[in-house]
């Protein structure tokens, strides 16, 4: 497998990194997190202008027809800079609309996502059901020409800033997807902030009245598309973690070269050299698995091959994230836990990366079930 970026991917990666270096530094990021909204409108529109929100959309819908491999360098850059804007969640929601929506639904929702004017977010997790992807407590029933939705979703990233939510619900025949205005009557958002600074919300639906055009695709047929979209998201979450791990390793290596004990840099101590090498090897192994997962998401011969590659990558990335984040903090000493040091924030990013879209235990169990 060729691990090198194409010329176009390299140019995009350099553009994203250049923007983040000049407009999304550590102090600027802290100001964004502390703001009432918890994300930067300026950064979001800059991402849209660079085409990031449109990369994975079909060309027929105003996108670039890209896949997970094309987005990998973007997500690595986001992980390195600890970007909190919900780009991944918008991309995944848009992917579902593009694959299940009618021409009218795609025309109504995807241009706003592509140009940054109307974000989307996916609501699929349910309270008390861990990583279950099949909805159970959120249900929709037909009512006249439309639908009535009841239930709840948890940890919906970017819910408060989204123009529309893509919500999975149990209907007659199976899983269905609905387009819902988060400000509609009967919808209640309980916002909070994750340990790594992202804004999320638990969303409750109480007798929410929906029109017939709220349903994406045919009733009861959405579970395969939802499963594929979440594997796509998981593969890109792995890429985000690779970027964060790379920063943690590089920052720790630089610190050990400058921190002195007994009059000499601690990087000269053999035991610390062994630990730094283990971090690097672990990072490279994890990156290889992340690339394989992205490639399988884009071109697997069947769903099981895709699931196997994604779960294997997530198990490796979760373990690698734990080792590298913990080593980076320990080798920085007490200051590694302070708010003032980016390494501590990277530790939090990698902690949540191990949980998003299923933790190591969840994916190990799924991997075993596919053999």
CATH superfamily of the largest domain: Butyryl-CoA Dehydrogenase, subunit A, domain 3
Please name the CATH topology of the largest domain. Butyryl-CoA Dehydrogenase, subunit A, domain 3
Strand order of the largest sheet: 1-4-5-8
CATH architecture of the largest domain: Up-down Bundle
What is the percentage of strand-forming residues?
A: 15-25%
Largest sheet: 4 strands, mixed
Class by SSE composition: alpha+beta
The coarse overall form would be globular
Please give the count of helices: 11
User: What does the radius of gyration come to?
Assistant: 21 Å
Order of helices and strands: HHHHHHEEEEEEEEHEEHHHH
CATH C-level category of the largest domain: Mainly Alpha
List the domain count as a whole number: 3
Summarize this structure as a short list of keywords or feature phrases:
Butyryl-CoA Dehydrogenase, subunit A, domain 3, four-stranded antiparallel beta sheet, Butyryl-Coa Dehydrogenase, subunit A, domain 1, 3 domains, 11 helices, alpha+beta, Butyryl-CoA Dehydrogenase, subunit A, domain 2, about 375 residues, 10 strands
Give an overview in words.
- The protein contains 11 helices and 10 strands.
- Strand 2 and strand 3 (146-157) form a beta hairpin.
- The strands form 3 sheets. Strands 1-4-5-8 form a 4-stranded mixed sheet. A 4-stranded antiparallel sheet has the order 2-3-7-6, with no helix packed on it.
- Helices cover 52% and strands 16% of the residues.
- The chain starts with 6 loop residues before the first helix and ends with a helix.
- It folds into 3 domains: 7-115, Butyryl-Coa Dehydrogenase, subunit A, domain 1 (Orthogonal Bundle), CATH 1.10.540; 120-216, Butyryl-CoA Dehydrogenase, subunit A, domain 2; 223-369, Butyryl-CoA Dehydrogenase, subunit A, domain 3.
- The chain is of the alpha+beta class and 371 residues long.
- The chain has helices spanning 7-23, 26-34, 41-49, 68-81, 87-100, 103-115, 223-258, 270-299, 303-332, 342-353, 360-369; strands at residues 120-123, 139-143, 146-157, 164-171, 174-180, 187-193, 199-210, 215-216, 260-261, 264-265.
- The model has no long low-confidence stretch (mean pLDDT 92).
- It is globular and about 80 Å long.
């Amino acid at each position: 497998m060729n691990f090198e970026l194409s010329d176009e991917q390299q140019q995009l990666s350099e553009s994203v990194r250049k923007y983040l270096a000049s407009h999304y530094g550590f102090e600027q990021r802290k100001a964004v997190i502390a703001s009432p909204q918890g994300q930067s409108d300026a950064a979001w529109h800059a991402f849209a202008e660079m085409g990031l929100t449109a990369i994975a959309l079909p060309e027929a819908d105003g996108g670039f027809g890209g896949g997970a491999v094309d987005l990998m360098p973007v997500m690595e850059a986001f992980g390195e800079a600890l970007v909190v804007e919900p780009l991944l969640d918008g991309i995944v929601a848009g992917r579902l609309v593009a694959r299940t929506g009618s021409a009218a639904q795609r025309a109504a929702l995807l241009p706003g996502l592509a140009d940054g004017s109307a974000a989307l977010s996916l609501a699929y997790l349910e309270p008390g059901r861990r990583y279950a992807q099949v909805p159970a407590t959120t249900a929709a029933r037909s009512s006249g020409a439309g639908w009535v939705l009841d239930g709840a979703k948890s940890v919906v990233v970017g819910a408060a800033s989204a123009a529309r939510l893509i919500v999975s619900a149990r209907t007659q025949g199976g899983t269905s997807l609905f387009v819902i205005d988060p400000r509609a009557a009967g919808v209640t958002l309980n916002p909070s902030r994750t340990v790594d600074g992202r804004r999320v919300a638990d969303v409750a639906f109480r007798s929410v009245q929906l029109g017939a055009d709220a349903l994406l695709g045919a009733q009861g047929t959405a579970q395969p598309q939802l499963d594929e979209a979440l594997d796509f998201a998981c593969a890109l979450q792995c890429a985000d973690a690779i970027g964060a791990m790379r920063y943690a390793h590089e920052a720790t290596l630089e610190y050990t070269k400058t921190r002195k004990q007994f009059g000499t840099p601690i990087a000269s101590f053999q035991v610390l050299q062994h630990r730094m090498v283990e971090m690097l090897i672990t990072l490279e192994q994890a990156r290889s698995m992340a690339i394989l997962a992205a490639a399988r998401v884009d071109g697997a011969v069947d769903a099981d091959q895709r699931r196997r590659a994604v779960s294997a990558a997530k198990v490796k990335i979760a373990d690698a994230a734990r080792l590298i984040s913990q080593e980076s903090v320990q080798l920085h000493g007490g200051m590694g836990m302070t708010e003032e040091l980016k390494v501590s924030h990277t530790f939090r990013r990698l902690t949540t990366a191990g949980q998003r879209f299923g933790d190591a235990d969840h994916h190990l169990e799924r991997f075993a079930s596919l053999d």
